[in-house]
Amino acid sequence: xxxxxxxxxxxxxxxxxxxxxxxxxxxxxxxxxxxxxxxxxxxxxxxxxxxxxxxxxxxxxxxxxxxxxxxxxxxxxxxxxxxxxxxxxxxxxxxxxxxxxxxxxxxxxxxxxxxxxxxxxxxxxxxxxxxxxxxxxxxxxxxxxxxxxxxxxxxxxxxxxxxxxxxxxxxxxxxxxxxxxxxxxxxxxxxxxxxxxxx
Length: 199
What we know:
By secondary structure, the protein is mainly beta. Helix content is 13%, strand content 39%. The two termini are 44 Å apart.
């Protein structure tokens, strides 16, 4: 009877610990906030040619930010034209076309490190509206892992941490660091593939 009671207590404690670890691992972490910002391209933006040169450039700056995300509303580019959001040295570049990935002109650009993002429109001969920027995500924390491999409990793990680990096949359960905007703040959390061709 005592062994059964001990087993019950031990099992209960294990479940409690597992539950709290699971809840901690899934919690979002605040890494910034959303700030108003007013900027826009000319409407329509200048024409280019078939090589799609840069026809409009604008620097978006949020002093002191560790990273910056640009929020576009009314993004609308002519067919074949594209917009890039990049850091000043061009080592991070994100590309958007048409009315953005959701087709509605409402786009949160991917983050670039530092407090400045450079927005460029690459235009052809078609006439496009351009964009309106109404806010930026101002980073106050880190969003990207350090270049070296990280194995630990902070939600970041490199595939190399599990090489040869049959119990945890990272090819089937990839982990990602997600950055999202909610209620005026920027958050990161851990994500994983629930279903899909690689699950």
